[in-house]
Design brief:
heterodimer, A: about 525 residues, alpha+beta, seven-stranded mixed β-sheet, about 20% strand, B: about 325 residues, BPD_transp_1_N (chain B), cell membrane (chain B)
Chain lengths: ~525, ~325
């Protein structure tokens, strides 16, 4: 998009706004960063999904607010074939796409839009595959949708049939993720005719609760309520994202009434927020885990009893207190307690330095010196990895294990920590994408993920464990899946490829007069249900 | 004079080529890889990695990449951002006015306060005013911008509620960007109160950004004044019985300002550096914040071309300063 057309867009958006002055109910969200663009498909950042996927678009199915349960969205209903290979979606009728000054839809949402949404990402020769030079579809490939989907057929205008290569229970949850937000084929055709394909990424047209109005780079995004929304219409008239990268400044803005709600407060500010009579603090367990992954292919960490002993040497309660300042709970399983199939019967390793020392001696470990890797960045699941590594260092010293703390630049850290034969243990974590246990267990602990390009940083390949996951993935019987995952967690605990550290809490500070905000366990920020009381 | 300008402009060419090398090398010397950062915790398979690297041309030897970049530059193509996929030049032009506006207000503020403070400190050398202002300048010069900005926000926006916390204008106002300068655009919009809002949003960030140049200008003015006041012609003027006001204002100040103007010109680079932190604190959508974001994302094209554009602007400003220096200083006439 040229510099001038950005201005034209802003100018025309202004004309649109001039006709409709700012309404009484303008809701301002102090977002933490700038979106990478407004087409949700090519990007991976939550910041981008909040600004595009959740505000402007819908998916075939969606997560029920505040949960990871699947509910109908643009698909009213669906059937899964007996063998789990065919999914038939019946599309909602009468759903309107937004319009802007350059485009007014002539038809309602239909099957063509669904097929367009998926095919542009799936087919390298599709005219919209690389509609902007250098654009790639990271989520589509990392969720292995390309390997999974065999074909997509239009049965009629309101029915779409997906055929898979193998049965895959998490498929529905994948289809609820922002990267497959349904875009308008008619809009794409219009842009192609006008020769402004890149506007799919600059001026999004969706079916979602809010219409995109204008974006001033790195400063402000403006939306208007979609009056034709197929679901329950938003209660606010205008939605504004005020981009505010610094957490302390976000809080000052909230306190000054310059915005109504903010994400990611600094842990150090929580006490002040709680004490402020004009603010509310919403909290919810996040769908995440912070862990320390041993390299199970390198001696002496190839012995489960050594890993177990080190886990017992760790005072996790003190660690969580110091690192998360109380805004987390100690983790015993690799999946968080809010996730279905969480095995609560499992007992965590007791903190017992004496017993740990003895176990290490019995395993023949003497004068061990090991590396502990500390991430250089903050993540919701790990606010201060350096501090965590120091706590582990002092705990391990008590059982005679010397720890050297290592850190690299973030990109290097991710790369080197996945290099075979890596020494020592790595602090890292994960935040769920779609609420399915498979999205934790397979991604982080399966044999397939223990290869280059995977994310199994323990290099732990346990055939029994991986078989359970494969079986659960192919089953469409929910109860059976629960059993299989519970069993897998038992094996995980016995083998101890990780020290599970913590599940952190998500905090959302907001003004007192904000009502109806529903926190998402997946860390999404959505505003169709918020309201402002006087 | 014309020859002098042409010669200076010719010198710019090798300098610019040097800068392309430095900027191109700097971002690649930093550990980190844009492709890995894009993938994050989820990882990327070796095949996929190779595919993306090939697409971006990062699989070729570095020298080839450099010459490819240089070739594109000569055709006026500064490349596209890896993240937003937009042309670097368009992004630069969209964000640049915000930085210029903040920088101009800051430098004007620093000059209007710094010069009088320096002059008074020189005249009243050794007085309490001299001591306090020079100590203040030292503190201001070593002020950590991040902390200073946050402190002002907490005090003036938080406790007192006098100024807005961050941004360029209240979200109530919405009008098309005509010039990119919020002060001008808000006047053009004709919306009531828009200009006042834009002005109030400028107060804190411009104070923060002006702090270091103000300290430098005040100290420089003081020492230039002291030097001039010891010169023969000033003593002569005093001996002739001219009023102190005339001595200081006409004879001393005019000559003392020559090095001070150079100093003010050289603050442009300092301002650019300060803008990075100031813009980040005040959510000011300008070049500094854009550079910081792009460096942390290892957005190679943005960093290398952005640095090149910034360097070009700083050098052109310095050239203009050089020329004015020749105009105001009769002792240096460019042959």
């Amino acid at each position: 998009m040229s510099f001038f057309s950005t201005r034209m867009l802003a100018a025309s958006a202004f004309a649109l706004m001039a006709a409709a002055p700012l309404h009484a109910k303008t809701f301002v969200y102090c977002s933490e960063g700038s979106p990478e663009g407004f087409d949700p498909a090519p990007y991976t950042a939550g910041t981008t999904f909040d600004a595009s996927g959740h505000a402007v678009y819908n998916r075939l199915v969606q997560f029920k607010p505040g949960t990871t349960e699947i509910e109908p969205a643009l698909a009213e209903s669906w059937e899964v074939s007996e063998d789990g290979l065919t999914y038939t979606f019946h599309l909602r009728q009468g759903v309107k796409f937004h319009s802007n000054d350059k485009f007014t839809p002539s038809r309602d949402f239909n099957a063509d839009d669904v097929i367009f949404t998926f095919e542009r990402q799936a087919k390298a020769d599709h005219p919209w595959h690389e509609y902007i030079p250098g654009i790639t579809y990271e989520y589509y490939s990392s969720m292995e949708m390309d390997k999974l989907i065999k074909s997509i057929e239009k049965v009629d205008d309101h029915t779409v049939k997906f055929t898979l290569n193998q049965p895959e229970a998490p498929f529905l949850a994948n289809v609820a993720m922002p990267f497959v937000s349904i875009v308008s084929k008619e809009y794409a055709d219009a842009l192609e005719t006008a020769g402004t394909k890149e506007d799919l990424n600059n001026a999004p047209i969706g079916t979602g609760p809010f219409k995109f109005v204008a974006y001033q780079k790195d400063a402000v995004i403006r939306y208007q309520k979609n009056a034709d929304y197929w679901g329950e219409a938003p209660k606010i008239d205008d939605l504004v994202f005020a981009i505010t990268p610094d957490a302390s400044v976000r809080l000052q803005k909230l306190k000054a009434g310059e915005c109504h709600l903010m994400p990611y407060p600094a842990p150090a500010d929580l006490a002040e927020i709680k004490a402020d009579p004009n603010l509310k603090l919403d909290e919810q367990a996040g769908l995440n885990v912070g862990y320390l992954a041993y390299n199970t292919t390198v001696a002496p960490f190839d012995k489960p009893e050594v890993r177990k002993a080190l886990n017992m040497a760790m005072d996790k309660k003190a660690l969580v207190e110091a690192v998360y300042q109380g805004s987390a709970e100690v983790a015993k399983n690799p999946i968080p307690p809010t996730m279905w199939s969480y095995n609560n019967a499992i007992e965590d390793d007791k903190y017992d330095p004496e017993a740990a020392k003895k176990m290490l001696e019995d395993a023949g470990v003497k004068d061990l010196t090991m590396e502990v890797w500390a991430m250089p960045v903050q993540r919701p699941y790990m606010p201060n990895a350096r501090r965590a590594a120091e706590m582990i260092q002092s705990d391990f010293a008590k059982v005679g294990v010397k720890v050297e703390i290592i850190s690299y630049e973030w990109g290097e850290y991710l790369k080197k920590s996945m290099e075979e034969g890596r020494k020592g243990a790595v602090i890292l974590g994960w935040t769920g994408d779609n609420g399915d246990p498979d999205n934790f267990l397979s991604v982080l602990l399966s044999c397939a993920a223990a290869t280059p390009g995977g994310a199994n940083r323990a290099f732990w390949c346990n055939q029994g464990f991986s078989d359970l996951l494969a079986k659960a993935k192919a089953s469409s019987d929910h109860d059976e899946r629960v059993k299989l995952y519970e069993e897998a967690q038992v094996i995980f605990k016995q083998e101890a490829p990780w020290a599970t550290l913590a599940h952190s809490t998500q905090y959302v500070p907001m003004a007192k007069n904000v009502t109806g905000f529903v926190q998402s366990p997946l860390g999404d920020y959505t505003f169709e249900s918020v309201d402002l009381t006087e | 004079m014309l020859r002098f300008i042409l010669k200076k402009l010719l010198y710019l060419v090798p300098t610019m080529i040097g800068i392309t090398l430095v900027a191109f090398g700097f971002i690649r010397l930093l550990p980190g890889d844009p492709v890995l950062l894009m993938a994050g915790e989820r990882g990327v398979s070796p095949e996929r990695y190779a595919q993306i690297a090939a697409q971006l041309g990062y699989d070729k030897p570095v020298w080839q990449q450099y010459f490819h970049y240089l070739g594109n530059l000569l055709q006026g193509d500064l490349g596209n951002s890896l993240v937003t996929k937009k042309p670097v030049l368009a992004e630069f032009l969209a964000l640049f006015p915000a930085t210029v506006e903040l920088g101009l207000v800051a430098i004007v503020l620093a000059t209007l306060i710094g010069v009088p403070v320096g002059v008074i400190a020189a005249i009243k050398r050794g007085s309490w005013f001299d001591q306090i202002s020079m100590t203040g300048a030292l503190i201001g010069f070593s002020m950590p911008i991040f902390w200073w900005g946050l402190l002002l926000i907490i005090l003036f926006s938080g406790v007192l509620g006098w100024t807005p916390v961050s941004g360029r204008i209240s979200l109530m106002y919405f009008f098309p960007s005509v010039t990119g300068f919020m002060l001008i655009d808000s006047l053009l919009s004709g919306q009531e109160g828009a200009f006042a809002s834009a002005l109030s949003h400028l107060i804190l960030p411009s104070i923060v950004l002006a702090t270091i140049p103000l300290a430098v200008i005040a100290r420089q003015t003081r020492s230039a004044m002291l030097e001039v006041m010891g010169e023969d012609y000033v003593r002569t003027a005093k001996a002739k019985g001219l009023s102190p006001r005339r001595v200081i204002g006409v004879h001393a100040l005019r000559n003392a300002m020559i090095p001070v103007i150079t100093t003010i010109g050289l603050q442009i680079g300092v301002l650019m550096a300060g803008a990075i932190l100031t813009e980040t604190i005040f959510s000011w959508p300008g070049i500094g914040k854009w550079m910081i974001d792009s460096i942390s994302r290892r957005d190679y094209p943005v960093v290398q071309s952005g640095l090149l554009l910034i360097a070009a602007i700083v050098m052109i400003v310095n050239l203009i300063v050089d020329l004015t220096y020749g105009l105001i200083n009769p002792r240096i006439r460019h042959k």
